[in-house]
Target: Threonine synthase
Amino acid sequence: MALTTAETTPALVRDLDFGPAVALSCRECGARYDLGPSFACTECFGPLEIAYEFPKVTREQIAAGPANIWRYRSLLPVPADVTDKPNMAPGWTKLVKADNLARELGLRSLHVKDDSGNPTHSFKDRVVAIAVEAARNFGFHTLSCSSTGNLAGAVTAAAARAGLDACVFIPADLEQAKIVMASVYGGRLVGIDGTYDDVNRFCSELIGDELGDKWGFVNVNLRPYYAEGSKTLAYEIAEQLGWRLPDQIVIPVASGSQLTKIDKGFKELIALGLVEEKPYKIFAAQAEGCSPVSSAYKAGHDVIRPVKPDTIAKSLAIGNPADGPYVLDIARRTGGAVEDVTDAEIVEAIRLLARTEGVFAETAGGVTVGVLRKLAAEGRIDPDAETVVLNTGDGLKTLDAVADQARPAAVIRPSLDAFRTAFA
Amino acid sequence: MALTTAETTPALVRDLDFGPAVALSCRECGARYDLGPSFACTECFGPLEIAYEFPKVTREQIAAGPANIWRYRSLLPVPADVTDKPNMAPGWTKLVKADNLARELGLRSLHVKDDSGNPTHSFKDRVVAIAVEAARNFGFHTLSCSSTGNLAGAVTAAAARAGLDACVFIPADLEQAKIVMASVYGGRLVGIDGTYDDVNRFCSELIGDELGDKWGFVNVNLRPYYAEGSKTLAYEIAEQLGWRLPDQIVIPVASGSQLTKIDKGFKELIALGLVEEKPYKIFAAQAEGCSPVSSAYKAGHDVIRPVKPDTIAKSLAIGNPADGPYVLDIARRTGGAVEDVTDAEIVEAIRLLARTEGVFAETAGGVTVGVLRKLAAEGRIDPDAETVVLNTGDGLKTLDAVADQARPAAVIRPSLDAFRTAFA
Model:
């Protein structure tokens, strides 16, 4: 294997502290590189990911840690003193025991991993927190990203706390809540006339330009670090289940990165002896209006054909998902599936989750719960197996999805007679 | 002292389990009553509150509890097995070390207690969780409330999870996010043509009518139980500071209940030997457009003159605050103060907190941070003392307050030239 030096300078390398991370490694050809702000293999153009030498770690050590993702810091590419630095300290969100929803779907044991409890109310706080440490390590002064909305808010908030500049890029037609959230923390919010894929391409250009010098694009040149943040979802689910893997899990797919990292996290827990080895099935969920991975799965293809998104699930509206092929692999290998639901089914699922469990999900949560419901109705998941479904965002950011249906039953004068008349 | 029986039936009394709570006690005359769905003293019309016989409890026992308010269940009017019941399990929100904001305000040590991390993103989840247990104890089938918005969402969500019906009442002119959130969880949302005080009066009528039979109005007939939930803010702040009381704390005032209960919580911790006794100053914060308590404080009065609210801080817009006189007492007794800020100062403070700490507060958080800023600028708080400021809600619910100012810096085509032109 090649051990080539990335674009990091010797001065930078000297001060790097990524904890247990020891190298970047190509997911395709296995080539290894020094830790640096690189994301693609120079030999085969495959994606780079973090290679570790993990210390011995026990359940007790983890449980004694803080109530956030840093309880797993010895399994993440961050320095041991990350807890002392100003960051958003995301994670350790609730694993909600969803007995009411389980009953409606005919399942025996169901939990909702509710990441709306994160500081900016989406799972993106997890990945950004790792990217911030990478940006500090590499001496970057500006944090940036292409975003479908949630990420932009997570980046600008984290940059504010960390004392970094921020410049973030979104499609100009996003929900108002996401636009406000992406700009209220300061930094520079730039709307792009185009889709998320246009925004993404633009950021790739910017990174090669002097305009983007010393910028950490969390989901481009910091992507190998950033993506590891999603492993913490796997760690938390297992720990919150009592150090046990679920039998079945339903995960949303935008780029597909989160799903691959949850699978990686489960495998690490087994390898480290923190949970017992057992089979688990991973189900991937997309919106019909942006379902390139689901389409490939159903057609039996290995290659993803890009689509132009048209769905209310904007946080999943990535028409050309980078990790799509890996999602197909994992769904097939674990005995899961990839499925999609319509916008109407998404809205129904949001309301179902809200009225059964008091969890108000973003459209992405409507996608996972909708797919779970579909799989259960069609007998494609085991009703007796321990099941987890992810809600990765917050209904307050996608109000329009339900605003037509979520209204007062009546507006009345403040009198008993008026109440009687309205509801008699 | 009178020990009279409230309207509870013997059958109800037999099955009641309120943990360490032993009676209701009049705050004014000290008359004691059996635990029941009562809220006013029949002797003097004073408000009733919970009287306890606390068990011996240690820091270690509490720390071994769950990461939510039930870690303090032995200090709350709930059964010991409350953790096994379906509820929202709120609390244990972040105490954010706010070094950036402290620097801007010239303070040495500042923390933000950020209750936007609760399940429905406001502190109301705390109080409602206690009310749900009271409703279960009393055999009520419907959970209800008058609300300025946050409470309605907290009640309908909690009712959904607990399997209770819900019927909640709000002023019809609330923010869209709060209306959606109050109806998405199911139950019945009723808009009232009028102010919060009109809604409140209507609920008091309803409770005396057969229409409201077997209804638990969390902030009326369940108020003594409900209000105790705010004590958990005091417990958490002290525990998160390392079992130490802060020197100074800034708390928002709507009805004033939360402030009085935080003071009660601090005093209980001292009495139980869980923290060292020391003086602390409580500062109360209102919006200028609804500042009856601040006005009375400044005028040196003991009586609150009701006002008609006119402020963007709708969650604090209670013109006739029931616990206003107690707030005056506490601010004066502890050496604190009551202060108010304009709507413009509220917006500025929301943006200040967001850009320094990555915390996006509701207008109520703008009120507390704005008042803190004013007190600091005027030299009325000790810049070297340990200070805590509360954010009780979420900026996503009051987007309009900042929407004009939180916008993209530019909207451009996805090209480097366009970026250069926009930001050259």
Q: What stands out?
A: Chain A touches chain B through 78 residues (CB under 8 Å). Residues 270 and 324 of chain A are 24 Å apart (CA to CA). DSSP finds 16 helices and 15 strands in chain A.
